[in-house]
Design goal:
15 helices; 43% helix; alpha/beta; 389 residues; eight-stranded parallel sheet; two-stranded antiparallel sheet
């Protein structure tokens, strides 16, 4: 575990330290977004345009921030979202993040592009959600679903928002990870190791794992991350017929991630999904689409009491979580914040990020005079009128 002089004091602090520790292209891989990054910025800005109504002399004696999701009690309404390839930022990787989430009493979503088998992640956190991406057709997808079922995953997250035009072209890029690892293939990474020796040592300690064990081929072989990504890019995007088929072969909680409209929420209800997550892939989907907090009310209106609504995108403070819950989300997912925490100090950094958010939620609810997340609603919010409207 990396040594640091002081604990993290904010998500912004975690990002600053991650930027100093990681090679620039790797940092930008996780902080960057599609094209002009309009949507990525708006994910954050949307929270800044919504205000809270404090209550005087109404501080509750205790604040309960727990929430029930799919018959599982979470100690806080924050779940770690599935993020691919996080082993590259710290040797603790998915296992460290899973342990930190378990210690905080919450769930983790494990990416299909995880470098660790989902069985090992579940050993670290029994409440593990598996992210499914469409790759290689239904037969291969059915095989992946069977893997998740046999491992004991508590929910299936199907990502349906797709990346757009790619990262900004002026951004520096690290060489792609090779299919085989030896001195010759690793030479292009030497300059990054020289500039960020702590990261390089940690990366070497991680074992230079470039496989994607949760996307095994029909013949049992394990593809590399690059090969798995190539398979995904060649596979036709999931249709609503595909999602209905998924519902028929997966009996556990099914979460459709990437829903942002009334119509798509109703379609998710129609196929029998248990939840939708309002998401634009952290700004990696269509650039120019609005921040997720702006589309959340539309999805909540469509959902009614028929389906659980989650959301991700732009969460940087505990007060952001409270705003999302007040608009009707049951819980939020975070990606970049915990990756930055992981980059700073592995499992401990993720634990500190979750604690920062927990304390922020508690303090915000105290100021609002609310003793449980179930009491949060739109009366907690103040949105100033738009000039001229």
């Amino acid at each position: 575990m990396s040594k640091r002089q002081r604990p993290l004091d904010s998500i912004a602090d975690a990002e600053r330290r991650a930027k100093k520790r990681l090679p620039a292209p790797l940092y930008l891989r996780y902080s960057g977004a599609t094209e002009a990054e309009v949507t990525s910025r708006d994910n954050v800005q949307a929270f800044n345009e919504v205000f809270l109504h404090p209550r005087a002399a109404a501080r509750p004696f205790e604040v309960d921030v727990s929430v029930k999701l799919f018959d599982q009690q979470l100690a806080l309404p924050v779940v770690l979202a599935p993020v691919g390839g996080i082993y590259a930022v710290h040797a603790d990787g998915e296992l460290g993040a899973a342990r930190a989430a378990a210690a905080a009493g919450t769930a983790i979503g494990v990416s299909a592009l995880s470098s660790k088998p989902v069985e090992r992640v579940i050993e670290a956190n029994a409440n593990t959600w598996f992210q499914l991406v469409f790759n290689g057709g239904r037969d291969r997808i059915a095989q992946t679903i069977e893997l998740a079922r046999n491992a004991g995953c508590s929910a299936l997250v199907v990502t349906v928002d797709h990346t757009g035009g790619g990262l900004k072209p002026d951004r520096p890029r690290m060489p792609d990870l090779p299919r085989t690892l030896n001195i010759r293939t690793m030479l292009p990474f030497a300059p990054y190791g020289a500039l960020r020796p702590r990261w390089a040592f940690d990366f070497l300690r991680a074992g230079l794992n470039v496989s994607a064990p949760n996307l095994r081929r029909a013949d049992g072989t394990v593809p590399t991350i690059l090969e798995a990504m190539a398979d995904v890019s060649k596979t036709k995007s999931a249709s609503w017929d595909d999602l209905a088929w998924l519902r028929s072969v997966w009996q556990g909680p099914l979460i459709i991630k990437g829903v942002t409209t009334f119509e798509d929420t109703r379609r998710a209800i129609g196929i029998g999904a248990d939840a939708v997550s309002v998401s634009n892939h952290g700004g990696l989907a269509l650039d120019g689409s609005p921040g997720t907090l702006r589309t959340l009310p539309e999805v909540v209106a469509a959902a009614g009491e028929e389906i659980v609504v989650l959301m991700d995108g732009g969460i940087r403070r505990g007060s952001d979580v409270v705003k999302a819950l007040a608009f009707g989300a049951r819980a939020v997912l975070i990606g970049r914040p915990y990756v930055w925490g992981l980059a700073t100090s592995g499992e401990q950094g993720v634990a500190e990020v979750l604690e920062i958010l927990r304390l922020g939620i508690v303090k915000t609810m105290e100021a609002l005079g609310k003793s449980s997340v179930a009491e949060l609603d739109r009366t907690c919010l103040f949105q100033p009128p738009v000039p001229g409207v």
